Amino acid sequence: MHSAQPPRVPKVLDLDRNEFDATCKKLMELVLTDWRPDVLIGIRSGGLYVAEAMGKACPFHIPIHSITCRRPTTRFKTASATLRGVIAELPRPVLDQLRVLEHRLITQRAKHPKPGERQLDAAELEVLDHWLTTAGDHPSLLIVDDSVDSGVTMAIVRDAIRRRSPAGAEIRCATITVTTPQPSIIPDYVLFHQQLCRFPWSLDAQLNISR
Question: Does domain 17-71+139-195 have CATH number 3.40.50.720?
Answer without folding.
Answer: no
